[in-house]
Design brief:
This protein is of the alpha+beta class. It is built from twelve helices and nine strands. It folds into two domains: 160 residues, Sandwich (Jelly Rolls); 99 residues, Orthogonal Bundle (Arc Repressor Mutant, subunit A), CATH 1.10.10. Helices cover 37% and strands 20% of the residues. The longest helix is centred in the C-terminal third of the chain and has 19 residues. The radius of gyration is 18 Å and the shape is globular.
Length: 299
């Protein structure tokens, strides 16, 4: 299980792999603690990713998607798949997170991914098939013990094993195709999955939240950003994906997804995301959630 990853003071960030049966659905459980000794809130910018559940155990947190103003974050939320950065700030906060792969989201809720995309939604019993919102008390009883907290979440999310979503094999197939750097055009994705363009468009909206063209563009961008997050000493020209025509092409994508230039991003502190990239790499073998290789569920 294991995987501590200490972020730069005052952030303590740790990742734990879920039990084997849950790995087709959940990337990691993770715990973030922002020290009370920090006079200012910790600020960072989340990159686009798949879905996440966040459970705020104490303290306060604010977030805004894209260029939205910062708003207080409810204690239990589901963030759908995103195509935009999320600016957040946390003060004296303790938070648990659960990363959901597209297959996990399909089992977790009866909503289509496109209806949850680029939104932070407060968890409620009518939204989920797992009683997460009512479990904050039980999770709080585990205190600061990482293993106990992760074990409690694993027992809770075992409910994902009791149901089955539509077209699960196709969800895994499309996600694996998205991870293939050679698959960089919609025609490549259609050929790899055996779906025609119209079917692929509907399918990606329902289970991945965005059209295939945007999903491929996001993968290309995040392959590049992940290189920089693992080694911030790199020059951007060294980090950009081979499928970018030139650096100007990369800068346009950077502005689209992060709402700032690469230079502006590199001049900012990233106390959470730098620790997350390294910690996730050590724990799960991928520096970002969208680069996580999916497994097929046991039949």
């Amino acid at each position: 299980m294991s995987e501590p990853a200490l972020g730069s003071h005052p952030v303590d960030l740790k990742f734990v792999l879920p039990p084997e049966p849950l790995r087709p659905f959940v990337t990691t459980f993770y715990h973030m603690q922002v020290s009370a000794s920090s006079r200012r809130p910790v600020v960072d910018w989340l990159h686009p990713e798949w879905s996440n559940i966040r459970l705020l155990m104490s303290g306060s947190m604010k977030a805004g998607i894209g260029e939205e103003p910062l708003r207080d974050v409810p204690r239990a939320t589901l963030t759908g798949p995103t195509s935009s950065s999320i600016k957040f700030e946390a003060r004296e906060a303790a938070c648990w997170g659960i990363g959901l792969l597209p297959l996990g989201l399909a089992r977790f809720t009866n909503r289509q991914a496109i209806d949850l995309a680029d939104k932070v939604t407060e968890l409620s019993s009518d939204l989920t098939r797992v009683p997460v919102a009512g479990a904050l008390g039980g999770l709080a009883k585990t205190g600061d013990d990482l293993a106990s907290g992760a074990a409690y979440l694993a027992s809770l999310f075992a409910a994902l094993l009791e149901t089955e979503a539509r077209r699960e094999d196709d969800i895994v197939m499309v996600q694996k195709a998205l991870l293939d750097p050679a698959c960089h055009a919609v025609s490549d994705l259609a050929a790899a999955t055996g779906m025609n363009a119209r079917t692929l468009e509907r399918f990606c909206g329902e289970f991945f939240g965005f059209p295939p063209q945007l999903l491929l563009r996001r993968q290309r961008f995040l392959r590049s950003l992940s290189q920089f997050m693992l080694d911030p000493s790199m020059k951007w020209i060294e980090a950009i994906d081979q499928h970018y025509h030139d650096q100007a092409h990369f800068v346009r994508d950077f502005k689209f997804f992060m709402h700032m230039t690469p230079r502006e991003y590199s001049l900012l502190d990233h106390p959470v995301l730098s620790a997350a990239a390294k910690g996730r790499m050590e724990a799960a073998g991928a520096p970002m959630q969208v680069l996580h290789e999916p497994d097929s569920p046991a039949k």
